[in-house]
Amino acid sequence: MNAQAVRPFSFPELQGSTAPGPLREISQLDQLHLEVAAVAGGSSTALSSILAWKTGDVLELDRAATEPVDLYVHRHMVGRGHIVIVDEIISVRISEIVGDASKLI
Questions:
Q1: Better-predicted residue by pLDDT, 16 or 68
Q2: Predicted structure pTM score
Q3: First vs last Cα of the chain: how many Å apart?
């Protein structure tokens, strides 16, 4: 194998923001869209039952209607809230934030 000389290389400073380090990087993500889900509960059901489902069947969940739903962003739980109806649209009023949202990015 022939030896080749290795020359050092330095990258130029990025232009366009005067914010220090991490703040400059995070501000570039402001318009990023993430998947958000509100989970009202769960259930464990045998495959044979699922295969027998028909229109009109009711799936019972493991949570009371008055309990808060869990809020997930990109499959990470970030909070809890209660279901509300706003202008005929199902919505969630956030009642609790859990965890550190900065871990999502």
A1: 68
A2: 0.64
A3: 43
